[in-house]
Every structure is written in C-alpha cells, then in structure tokens.
Design a protein that fits this description.
Blueprint lengths: L12 H15 L11 H8 L10 H13 L20 H13 L8 H17 L6 E5 L2 H19 L4 H4 L7 E6 L4 H9 L7 E4 L9 H13 L3 E8 L11 H10 L3 E6 L23 E4 L12 E5 L4 H5 L44 H36 L3 E5 L7 E4 L7 H18 L5 E5 L2 E5 L9 H20 L2
Parallel strand pairs: 2-3, 2-4, 4-5, 5-6
Antiparallel strand pairs: 1-7, 6-7, 8-9, 10-11
The structure holds pyridoxal-5'-phosphate (PLP).
Length: 492
C-alpha cells in the first residue's frame, strides 16, 4: 500500500457513476409505493457513527444507491403538485454532474464560465429585459431577493449621499420596504440580513383582486415620506405562492419611479409566467423593473440551488457587493482579452464576484444554459402555458362539480379549491374535512398536493410547474379529491 496516496478514489469516475445509475433510473420511474415513508427501515442503516477507517468506494456507492437514491423525495413525480420546486429534467441533471466535475469554479477562462454568463444573457432576453441589464446566479430565490434588495438599499443610500455597503446604514433614517401581505417571508428576512430590520417591511393589504392595494400603498408612502423615513424599495410580487396572483407591476413601476424609489420584483415562482401571452399584460414593462429575482430551479426545473437576479443598472451591484480582494487573488483582475490566454488561470473570465454574496460557487448557469439549449424559448413557453392550463382545468372542473368549490380563480399555474358537499356550511367542519382529504390523497400516493388558506378557508392548492405533469395529472388530482372527499363526507 502506497501511503502517499489519498484515501478517496480518483481513478474510475465512470465506474462510480455507473454504480448509482440503475438506482437513479429506477428512482425517476417512480414505481410502486413511496419508499421514503419507511423511515424505520432506512434510517437505522444510515445513522452510524463517524467511521475511523472509511468503508471505501464500493460500499459507499452501494449505500448511496440503495439507501439514499432509492428512498429519495419524489417531488418530480408527475402527480406531485405540492411545491414550487421540482426535480431536474435529464439534461439539467447531467449538466449538474458535468458542472461538479469539469466546472468547479464559475470564473476563469473555461467553457463553463462562458456559458454561465451566456445563460444570464439568455434569461435577460427571454424575459424581455434590456440588453444593458446584468445579473448573477444565486443559490435560490431567497438569495436572489437578498441581492436585489441589497442593490435597492445601495440606491436609497446613494440618494442621500451615503455609501451603505461601506459605511453601514446608521445614517439612513428609518428604512422601509413596501410589499403586499402575500409577499414571501424571505423578503422580510432579507431586510433583517441587510441590517434594515424585518419589522421595517411595511406590508400593504390586498385589494378585492387579491393583489397589493395601490391606494393603501400610496397612503403608506405619503405617510412615511412625511415622517422623513428612508424609502428603500417597493417589492412587487410576480406570482405569490399561495394563489399565484401577480401584482399590477406596471402600476407599481410608475408609483415607484414617480417617487424615485427602487422597484424590486419577486418572480421566484412566476417570473417565467410572463411567457404566457394571455397574462403578459399584468407584468407591465419589464424594462422598468430595477431588479428582478427569478428562480430557474422552479419552473425551468434546473437542479435545486439555482436562483438568479437581474438588475437594470449595471453599476450598482458592484457598489452594493464590493469585496476587497486579498493579496493571494490579485491576479484575478488581469483583464479578459479576446486572444487565447496563456493559461486559463491568467484571466478571471466573464462575470464578477462583486455581484452577490457568494465567492466560490458552482457555475450554476451551466444547467440553465443546457436546459434552454435543449428546449429553447418555445419549449419553455409551451411548458408555462400547459401548466397554466392545468390550473384552469382544475378550476373548470371545480366550477362544474356540485361537490367542489373554487376558492380563487387561477392566474398562473396554482388553483385553490376545496371539497364541499351540498348542505355543508360550517367553515370549521369544512376545514377539517379538506385537511383530511389532503392527508388521504397523500396516503393513497397517486397524487400529492399541498394546502393554503384563502380568505381564512382551508384550500387544496395544486401548483403545476413540474415538467413531467400533464392534464392527465391535473384530472387525476381532481378525481382523487372527489373519491377521498366522498368517502370521508359519507362517514360524516
Ligand atoms: C420560492 C420562492 C421564494 C424563495 O426562493 P427559494 O428558491 O426557495 O430560496 C421567494 N419568493 C417566491 C415568490 C417564491 O416562490
């Protein structure tokens, strides 16, 4: 035994991948009952003390295949409509593996660096933002919103002659961010992380259309301006995760810009929804958004860990997220020329570490590039339209059925409805019944969905973003609700 050799194998990657491939292929067929529920079987087999001597490659890969992969979470199952995230499609998964092996950094002169940057350009074009916009990939929508709101904080500070990223926000009086009550909770956390305080997210009630009330927003803005507060950003919601509604983003842009306030749009779920011409108008002029958070690991089905933020003013991200480089990485600033480099390590490549909160990260855009290359803008548009149609299909069936009630008209790909037998009027009893239906259909395993509350009522809430889901799955969900609901209601 050569004791200078590392304990980890590096001589047979193909064999390692082949060792888990059959389990991966079996997993994505989603056959039979969901094995993950048998926690009592897999957990004791995994719950072991730290090994002093490792078990070696083959035994580890066997555990990976038989215990982890085989019992994986089936959110990519065609009948799963519970969340706004899904599992990757084939090319996205393959790109993720390629990225881990061959693009272990997003910078430096490599094809992976190049397509990471290209993928952002493609997203900018796909969503109709101006060519001058810039962007960066992030770990998800949470960080994408953090970066967008960080840029807004910089903008608000600079209007006061301050440099918040350098000096802090001590001289910014009473910062406020405005968003509807439907805004995702990560927006409030971003305020906390950015030192502005979660409490200073001023939430504006909804109007009768279920989106931000513009009159109440204007009144809040007037009040805070009168009180001398720093108005950092208005956050518009392009698809809330409860009902899938889209704030009137054109109006929000007008209101924000009349007052010199930054407009950030959270499109983590519904950003790609603007590809559906039937609802395009709700998004207003995308070129007017100051920052736009989107989440390729949702509707685009990139591997989880792939968010993105796009910002209109190309200078502000650099000022908001400047890092003072260490002596060891000065050479990163050798400028990228057009000629072939002497070595890929002589040049930084495209993109910049100053545009977010990560330093070393994977080239997340590699999977986005691969997916867009595979399906094109047309493939993505067709997916969005099909999923919006799935939600409309559920709504249509709910309207047509004597025992179903539509609770919110779908805008994007979410439909909120409930089971309501004739004569059942007690709200608490209906809530209990529908909660039991949700659990009942999950236990049967044909379809799995989630719930929310609409006007205080417990609602079943399918969200269709899964590339594997079709109308048949939307119909199957309704059939399951009817079957389980009738059985439970008959029992009283
Ligand atoms: C998913 C989501 C987020 C959070 O994004 P992550 O990718 O889960 O970090 C924020 N806002 C909206 C509207 C979302 O749908």
């Amino acid at each position: 035994m050569d004791d200078h050799r590392d304990a980890a194998a590096t001589d047979a990657l193909a064999k390692a991948v082949e060792a888990i491939l059959p389990a991966l292929e079996r997993f994505v067929r989603f056959e039979g009952p969901d094995p993950a529920r048998e926690r009592s079987r897999w957990r004791p087999l995994l719950d072991r003390p730290l090994p002093h001597a490792g078990v070696g490659r083959d035994a580890t890969l066997a555990e990976l295949a038989e215990l982890v992969v085989a019992n994986g979470l089936r959110i990519a199952h065609p009948g799963f409509s519970g969340w706004v995230t899904t599992g990757p499609t084939d090319v996205g998964a393959a790109a993720d593996l390629a990225q881990a092996v061959a693009v272990p950094q997003r910078w430096w002169v490599t094809p992976g660096n190049f397509v990471d940057h290209l993928a952002i350009r493609w997203l900018i074009e796909l969503l109709g933002l101006p060519e001058s916009a810039v962007g960066t990939f992030t770990a998800g929508g949470s960080t994408a919103n953090l970066v967008g709101i960080g840029a807004a904080r910089q903008h608000a500070g600079e209007r006061l002659g301050l440099r918040p990223a350098l000096d802090g926000i001590g001289d910014m009086p009473d910062p406020r961010v405005y968003a509807s009550t439907e805004t995702h909770h990560v927006v409030g956390r971003a305020l906390g992380v950015l030192g502005m305080g979660r409490r200073h997210l001023r939430t504006i009630p909804l109007d009768r259309a279920g989106t931000i009330d513009l009159d109440l927003l204007q009144a809040a803005l007037d009040e805070d301006r009168g009180a001398g507060r720093t108005q950092v950003a208005i956050v518009g919601c392009a698809g809330d995760v409860n009902t899938g509604r889209v704030d009137p983003l054109g109006d929000l842009a007008r209101i924000a810009h009349e007052r010199g306030i930054w407009l950030h749009v959270d499109g983590a779920y519904g950003g790609f929804g603007l590809l559906d011409e039937r609802i395009r108008e709700r998004y207003g002029d995308v070129a007017a958004y100051d920052s736009f958070a989107i989440d390729p690991h949702k509707w685009l089905a990139a591997p989880v860990g792939t968010g993105a933020v796009i910002v209109r003013d190309e200078g502000i991200l650099g000022r908001a997220f400047t890092i003072e480089t260490g002596d060891y990485d000065r050479e990163r600033h050798v400028s990228a020329g057009e000629e072939d480099p002497g070595s890929p390590f002589d040049e930084l490549g495209l993109g910049t570490p100053d545009w977010g909160v990560d330093f070393s990260t994977p080239a997340r855009g590699l999977a986005v590039w691969a997916i867009l290359r595979e399906i094109g803008a047309d493939g993505m548009r067709a997916r969005v339209v099909r999923h919006d149609d799935c939600a409309r299909r559920v709504a249509e069936r709910a309207r047509a059925s004597a025992t179903l009630e539509l609770l919110a008209e779908p805008v994007l790909s979410i439909c909120c409805f409930r089971f309501r037998p004739p004569g059942w009027d007690d709200e608490a009893r209906l809530d209990d019944l529908n909660e039991a239906i949700l659990r009942g259909i999950r236990a049967r395993g044909r379809t799995v969905t989630s719930s929310t509350r609409v006007d205080g009522r417990f609602a079943l809430r399918p969200c269709f973003i899964n590339p594997r889901s079709t109308f048949a799955d939307a119909d199957a969900l309704v059939d399951e609700v009817l079957a389980v609901g009738s059985e439970l209601a008959a029992r009283g």
